[in-house]
Amino acid sequence: MDPAVRIAWQLRDGERAAPGTVICRLAGHARSLVSAERSALNFLQLLSATATATASYVAAVAGTGTRVLDTRKTVPGLRLAQKYAVRCGGGHNHRIGLYDAILVKENHIIAAGGIAPAVAAARRLHPDLLLEVEVENLDELRQALAAGADRIMLDNFDVPLMREAVQLAAGRVPLEVSGNVDLGTIGEYARTGVDYISVGALTKHVRAVDLSLRLRLG
Question: Which residue range or ranges hold the Quinolinate phosphoribosyl transferase N-terminal domain (predicted)?
Fold first, then answer.
């Protein structure tokens, strides 16, 4: 955008806006404003939608103590912006990339020959990073606990199995639920006592918020 354009935000990041609310006021040449209109609106609509969706999920788990996490399933090139929007909506960030935490998944476990060797190899490479292990059943949960995972992801567990997992872990490590999470299920999942629920839909299935730009000459 033209650096001469002045912008005055009318709302703070994360503040709710009712339909018809003026979000910001711009002052500059009409040509500059119209040229940048579509790109600016696309960006703002996506991030507003991300924050709005996050706020809905956070409200659905209110009172449970469970935190809502995002994932790395973000729009290419906009990961940091969407991660910020999640925080504006009251959610929390999972890892940003492959550099700030380790998530040992099914293919890593297969390649390493099991959960224990996969965890051991990851610890040798990056002993300073948080290490999370994804498990698909209670037997794998036991293995991940024994291997010393810092956090354990319960992948596609149903509600009764989540409750068993919470009892089995007994608070030794935080548990995270992933898979089949939507606004209709997240509350029930949270009430099982898990610590985190990660929701890919926060950043990949959002519907753009309806925003528009209107010129006023003067």
Answer: 5-48
Q: Select which of 72, 79, 87, 105 is catalytic.
A: 105
Q: Would residue 105 show up in a list of annotated catalytic residues for this protein? A: yes
Residue 72 has pLDDT above 80, yes or no: yes
| Residue 6 is among the residues annotated as catalytic for this protein | no
Assess whether 100 carries a catalytic annotation: no
Indicate if 83 belongs to the active site: no
CA–CA separation, 31 and 62 (whole Å): 46
Instruction: Indicate the domain borders of the chain.
Output: 62-204
Of 192, 189, 191, 183, which Cα lies nearest the Cα of 156? 189
> Given a cut of 90, is residue 115 above it in pLDDT?
yes
**DSSP codes of every residue in 151-215:** EEEEES--HHHHHHHHHHHTTSS-EEEESS--TTTHHHHHTTT-SEEE-THHHHS----------
- The mean pLDDT value for 77-97 works out to 98
User: Choosing from 2, 25, 38, 210, which is the catalytic residue?
Assistant: 38
**Catalytic-labelled residue, pool 73, 87, 191, 204:** 73
Has residue 218 got a pLDDT over 80?
no
**CATH 3.20.20.70 fits domain 62-204:** yes
pTM for the full predicted model: 0.93
